[in-house]
Design a protein that fits this description.
Layout (H helix, E strand, L loop, with lengths): L2 H14 L3 E7 L9 E7 L2 H17 L6 E4 L5 E5 L3 E7 H7 L1 H4 L4 E2 L10
Parallel strand pairs: 2-5
Antiparallel strand pairs: 1-2, 1-6, 3-4, 4-5
Helix pairs in contact: 1-2
C-alpha cells in the first residue's frame, strides 16, 4: 500500500467507529517522521480504545501492521505509528492541548470528501 492508501484506510476505519473531526495532513515535504498524519477526536476513553483497535485491525488485515503503538495512561490519546503514516486519536481536551493542526500548519490538508461518510 502507498502511504496515501494507508492514510485513507485509517480514515475509513476511524469513520466506521464514528471518529470525529477526522483530518489528514500531508507532512512528507516537511519532515522525515511520516508522509501523513491522521488526526481524530473521540468522546470517551472507551471510544479512543475502540478507534485504535479498529484502525490497527483493519490495517494489519491489509498487510500494514503498526510499527509502534503509544498510549497515554490517562486514556486521553493513542498514537499508532505505521512508519509512513502516524494516526493520532485524542479526546477533545488533549487534541486542543497538543494542537497538531497549528503545530503542523505548513502541512497540506488532504481532501477526505471521497473517503468519509456523510453522517
Amino acid at each position: 500500500m502507498t502511504p496515501k492508501e494507508i492514510a485513507f484506510a485509517a480514515v475509513k476505519a476511524l469513520d466506521s467507529k464514528k471518529g470525529q473531526d477526522i483530518k489528514v495532513l500531508e507532512t512528507g515535504h516537511l519532515t522525515t517522521l511520516a508522509d501523513y498524519f491522521v488526526l481524530c477526536s473521540a468522546t470517551s476513553t472507551t471510544q479512543i480504545k475502540a478507534l485504535a483497535d479498529v484502525c490497527e485491525k483493519m490495517l494489519k488485515d491489509a498487510g500494514e501492521p503498526p510499527h509502534h503503538v503509544e498510549g497515554h495512561r490517562g486514556g486521553t490519546w493513542i498514537l499508532l505509528d505505521f512508519s509512513s503514516v502516524v494516526v493520532h486519536i485524542f479526546n477533545e481536551e488533549a487534541r486542543k492541548f497538543y494542537d497538531l493542526e497549528r503545530l503542523w500548519s505548513d502541512a497540506t490538508p488532504v481532501d477526505l470528501s471521497e473517503v468519509l461518510t456523510e453522517n
